[in-house]
Write a structure and sequence with these properties.
single chain, alpha/beta, FAD/NAD(P)-binding domain, Enolase-like, domain 1, 3 domains, five-stranded mixed barrel, five-stranded parallel sheet, about 30% helix, globular, binds flavin-adenine dinucleotide, binds nicotinamide-adenine-dinucleotide
Length: about 450
């Protein structure tokens, strides 16, 4: 059996882990990164998350036939996977081992490779970056159905579903619903939550719901999923609707998108004395340390927001700890935005109107329809609504909701403004290039 001693061991090829591995190796820290699958170099984002889904969204908008889009997306992820592997494998001081890691003690792990070889690794510092996997709820008939997909398995399906039922109307559910409807599937979204997009303000949720429905998507909230009945040509999803009616929805594909769960299967963190919470996530302090001081947890697995850019920011916290002044901490993150890549995309940052009201803040609300921005006419994407929540006395931007073309780009500019004290009047009275989506801010003035 091969034995390795290393300064740093990273378990999982996620955004934080791979960025940290490269950084450590470049700073003369001997680093081993263990990834369980040769199909996951680069982690969830590259292989089964952000990149393939957004590639499919863009190609749906460009009206590329579905099978061609899946093929092009596979080529893209294969390219990025190899690029991610090479970036670490060719770096002096960094070693990538492909196999499943399992703790033996607080400093020792074993790795079982794909050819069942065992490698023992002893490390001074260990960074857990093992991510999450889809959570599947208990619904009678779900396990027995051959038409059940997760976000991962549906990406591999080159045949376009004719009738797609999406269980869960969150990030993944809505992104898939929007893109499959554009490819030509008949899409129904089922969600147990009584309200559509319950965290968002009513006006935004209504606007988004209307646009999705105009694209042919049927959305049911407040449903109770009773059973999935297998059939020869189609499965049937039996539900009780919010108004008490019963419905039987036919589907040749059923996507389950009801959240993601911590992935520590086989990792045996207990052998290292690392604690997990009731949901399997690994609790960390403000500097991402677990209860065992030389073991850190980065990315989704620490129970923080599940975004690639948060995983990257976790890397920055570690970098500052090991090489800087330890000045960066989880609680320093102010105004973390998000973008849902429906068409047009929806992005949000800061407070919603209802949250500002609940805090008793004096607010001014500014709203414009997306269609007043000339760029939306050029893009032929005139749907949407832009809304600013502004402090009535200080003119500071408290929050912004953007449901419009390029919202995922604009939201980053707003973050820069908010975190640097740029007032709403200043933001809306700047010079912006024309015809761009950024000049939407001028239309608020
Ligand atoms: C369909 C989908 C779309 C998404 N879209 C977006 C988006 O547009 N924007 C965005 O910001 N976020 C998006 N996300 C979320 C984003 O992908 C995740 O938040 C991010 O990838 C998490 O990265 P991570 O660093 O936690 O680790 P991950 O990238 O999840 O990597 C964990 C790695 O650890 C490996 N591993 C696990 N256990 C072991 C073990 N015992 N031994 C060895 N290796 C192991 C796994 O194989 C995996 O490669 C999306 C997610 C999904 C599922
Ligand atoms: N654009 C992005 O940044 C992006 C895209 C995709 C995923 N993600 C990340 O991945 C995470 C997981 O996404 P997700 O969509 O799986 O989770 P989610 O938490 O966003 O949404 C889950 C939805 O499923 C519903 N639900 C839960 N149980 C249900 C049941 N039994 N039946 C019907 N509906 C049920 C919930 O009410 C909720 O609306 C997100 O939280 C996000 O952090 C991000």
């Amino acid at each position: 059996m091969q034995s390795i001693k290393t300064d740093a061991l990273i378990i999982g090829f996620g955004k934080a882990g791979k960025t940290l591995a490269a950084y450590l190796a470049k700073h003369q820290v001997q680093t081993v990164l263990v990834e369980q699958s040769d199909q996951m170099y680069g982690g969830t984002c590259i292989n089964i998350g952000c990149i393939p889904t957004k590639s499919l969204v863009v190609q749906a908008e460009r009206k590329v036939p579905y099978a061609d889009a899946v093929r092009a997306t596979d080529e893209l992820t294969a390219f990025l996977r190899q690029q991610n592997f090479n970036a670490l494998d060719t770096l002096t001081g960094s070693t990538v081992i492909t196999g499943k890691a399992s703790f033996v003690s607080a400093h020792d792990i074993t790795v079982r490779t794909q050819s069942s070889e065992e490698i023992q690794i002893q490390a001074d510092r260990i960074f857990i970056n093992t991510g999450t996997v889809p959570f599947l709820p208990t619904i009678p008939g779900l396990e027995g159905s051959s038409r059940i997909y997760t976000s991962t398995s549906l990406l591999k399906e080159s045949r376009l579903p004719k009738k797609l039922v999406v269980i869960g109307g969150g990030f993944i559910g809505l992104e898939y619903a929007s893109m499959y409807a554009q490819y030509g599937s008949q899409v129904t979204v089922l969600d147990t939550s009584p309200r559509f997009l319950p965290r968002e303000d009513d006006d935004l949720a209504a606007e988004i719901g209307n646009v999705l429905q105009q694209k042919g998507i049927t959305i049911y909230n407040g449903v109770r999923l009773k059973e999935i009945q297998p059939g020869d040509a189609l499965d049937t999803v039996a539900v009780s609707l919010a108004d008490g009616r019963e419905a039987a929805l036919e589907a040749d594909a059923i996507l389950v998108a009801t959240g993601r769960q911590a992935y520590t299967d086989g990792l045996n963190v207990a052998a290292a004395g690392v604690q997990t919470d009731g949901h399997g996530f690994i609790p960390v302090n403000n500097y991402l340390q677990t209860n065992v001081p030389h073991i850190w947890a980065l990315g989704d697995i620490n129970g923080g927001p599940q975004f690639t850019y948060i995983s990257l920011d976790d890397f920055r916290i570690i970098r500052e700890q090991l090489f800087g002044s330890a000045g960066r901490a989880v609680t320093d993150r102010k105004n973390v935005p998000f973008s849902v890549f429906i068409t047009p995309p929806y992005a949000h940052i800061g407070l919603r109107e209802k949250e500002a009201a609940a805090q008793g803040l004096p607010v001014r609300i500014h709203k414009i329809p997306a269609k007043v921005v000339p760029r939306t006419r050029i893009l032929n994407q005139t749907e949407g609504l832009l809304k600013a929540i502004v402090h009535a006395e200080t003119d500071q931007i408290l929050g912004f909701s953007l449901f419009c073309a390029e919202a995922h780009e604009l939201i980053n500019l707003i973050r820069l403004a908010m975190n640097n004290g740029v007032t709403f009047s200043r933001l809306t009275d700047e010079i912006y290039t024309h015809p761009s989506m950024t000049e939407a801010f001028n239309y608020f003035a």
